[in-house]
Amino acid sequence: xxxxxxxxxxxxxxxxxxxxxxxxxxxxxxxxxxxxxxxxxxxxxxxxxxxxxxxxxxxxxxxxxxxxxxxxxxxxxxxxxxxxxxxxxxxxxxxxxxxxxxxxxxxxxxxxxxxxxxxxxxxxxxxxxxxxxxxxxxxxxxxxxxxxxxxxxxxxxxxxxxxxxxxxxxxxxxxxxxxxxxxxxxxxxxxxxxxxxxxxxxxxxxxxxxxxxxxxxxxxxxxxxxxx
Length: 228
Hints:
The termini are far apart. The protein has a single domain (5-226), classed as Spore Coat Polysaccharide Biosynthesis Protein SpsA, Chain A (Alpha-Beta Complex), CATH 3.90.550. With 228 residues, the protein is of the alpha/beta class. Mean pLDDT is 90; it is low at 202-206. It has helices at residues 18-27, 45-50, 68-77, 99-107, 128-145, 161-166, 176-186, 211-226; strands spanning 5-11, 32-38, 57-61, 84-89, 113-117, 157-160, 191-195.
């Protein structure tokens, strides 16, 4: 069975990396279309995207900055032609070369959703408090949803397209990750974790995720345990 991918790339002020990540995604030897959602970049990212001339790449522009969750929701409402949906960040932390490994459990009929775990594969050494925060959120996920994930906050989440299209995503920002995880497990979908290679940013380049985002994630996990 030949699998076709729909790759969703959420972009915000990624002028330094968008060209490279796009070329690496294109080089993966799997049939694919690419949906890029620019979340109202204020650097030169939009100018770079406007020069793309490729029938397999669709670019959608937000008229205001809304967040990663909103960008994924925009792509979800767009025409998705693939059998499998992969969410790809626009930076260089996650490696598109892992796609064949990530889609294999779905391709073989063993999974509806695949999580690429940074803790099962090769990875740059994490900052201690980021590691603790991730482990806390993952532990809470396992407690609330009776599962055994190692990396709830991973950026590599892969779905059968039919499953992805039916997920009712409401979160706009980084709380997208716990929300979609909660809904995947509440639907009792088959989830497989696979090791990935992860190269985190340099410390000074770390995304501006704070303890407040962690509190929002905790509340999101608890809330969606009891409501849709």
